[in-house]
Amino acid sequence: MVRIKAGEVDRDNSIDKVEQILQGAMQEFLQHGYAGTSMDRVAVAAGVSKATVYSHFQDKEGLFKVLLEQLTSKKNNSIFGTEPIEGEPGVILHQVATKALDQMLNDKEHSAFMRVLIGESGRFPELAQICIRAMIKPVAETLTHYLAAPELNIPDPEATARILLGTLVYFHITQNVMHGKDIIPMGSDRLIDALIHLITNCAD
Description:
The protein has 204 residues and is mainly alpha-helical. It folds into two domains: 1-57, Arc Repressor Mutant, subunit A; 60-203, Tetracycline Repressor, domain 2. It is 75% helix and 0% strand. It is built from nine helices and no strands. The chain has helices at 6-32, 39-46, 50-56, 60-80, 89-106, 108-120, 125-147, 157-177, 188-203. Helix 4 (60-80) packs across helix 5 (89-106) and helix 5 runs antiparallel to helix 9. It is elongated and about 55 Å long. The N and C termini lie far apart (64 Å). 21% of the residues are buried.
């Protein structure tokens, strides 16, 4: 017989509660925005008590930050994996750009979350800064590290990484977040091919 210690059960229950709270929080943030979401609403949506929410998260900003960091971690791992990026630059950059853009374009929840961030950033600039620190900065740093390889011969790896990332984010915002794909339509493959062509030619 397998015996489970009380501490293990408590730990598992705690993890389940955190996941419930995060799911409830996502539901509320997307439906009511940051300003319209309260810890009371989150507790109801998560099916837990308000005390349970506060036992895991100090305040709404902390909850929002953890939610964003969790989403970002999952996406970054699926795009870059857990090993250092290696391989022929044109192929690797095309793969990374395609994975990143596919995730952004095909994830309706991500697009809705971006609308909340952009819409609330005027009143709550700290939310936008959390996004930059958790979502944009790690990706930019990973790309910069790869592009800084001497054999690539790229004069400014950091600026090039931002051009790559910025183009993908711009495309996502104009096509999906702001509902512009019928106004300025373009296939994602076409954009990626042109972008990688520019970067790899710069490296030659």
